[in-house]
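Late entry, written up from scratch paper. The run itself happened at the end of the previous shift, but nothing got recorded in the book at the time, so transcribing now.
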Amino acid sequence: MPQAFFVRKYLIPGEEPRKEVFKPAPFYYGTLSTTDAATQIAEESSLTKGDVLNVLDRYQRYVITNLQKGYKVELLGFGTVYNRFITGKGVEKPEEAKASQIRSIIPGFTPSFTLINGSRRYSLMGEKTNLVKVNINGTQTPDEEGEGDDDRPVIE
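Output as recorded:
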């Protein structure tokens, strides 16, 4: 499956004038909703869209409830959701650490992976991902050598 990217300008902080650099950044064609997922799952299974929406709604509540109870929640092949603390400055002694140092609690996520020859292969990425350069409006462009889609770089 192709992962589209575009060229993004970044400004390097520090000395004036700031230096501009360019890097590839992921390009997204949009955001798919839970309803979109339910529709596709229903088309590929014996469940109705309503059945799938009900299960996804229940799962969301399950995750929220158990995060509030202090658990991490793992969905096999997807990853683990957990609570992260955003904290202020650290203190020198353990007994000085207090809840008031916690500025906010935000969800964290670690994707599932397997180790293959010492490298991580993330379950969410599939086996191979082709890269394709797009213009900012989403249209594909040939790569620097002018080659077509058949010669796209592959990330494993």
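Confidence is low (pLDDT under 50) at residues 144-150.
(Scratch paper discarded after transcription.)
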